[in-house]
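Progress against Task 2.4 (sequence-to-structure conversion) is shown through the following example record, which the project officer requested during the mid-term review.
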Amino acid sequence: MKLFFASDLHGSLPATEKAIELFNASGADTFVLLGDVLNHGPRNAIPEGYNPPVVAEKLNTIADSIIAVRGNCDSEVDQMLLSFPMMSDYAWVMLPGGQRLFLTHGHLYNSDKRPALRANDVIAHGHTHVPIAEKDGKQFIFNPGSMTIPRNGNPASYGLFEGKTLKVVSVEGEVLRSVELS
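Structure tokens generated for the chain above:
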């Protein structure tokens, strides 16, 4: 099982095209979108290449590979443009060996406000635009950062899960964060 993660695309066509290119090159089975797909929201500047309708068209070309959750900037109007569901606040993915991966955007559940998780489960979220891959207490925290609006001096980034490793990778290919699941 190999998963590709992106979060907080915020309607940027160049970031979306790069994410799809990296997904295709990664050999991942599934493209996990952790919310804030089409709109930039009132707190963010309009991103480079902002073009939500074309971003939707591009993502729809890989719709059968996408698992998506709703971000705080996503709405029912956005869902009308997309051919994959993205209005759920969270989703679960079962990992090999029985671990669970809880997918959410981060505005409702996050590393500080977790749902009921078991030891060694993973909470994967975006929202902060800051990459994280670490064990925190009994669970793992994972955030792929943002390809569109990275924060705290971090480069544009995405995430990968393969084998037992979660990692955050810059669009240039540098591993920024990595954690081995136990």
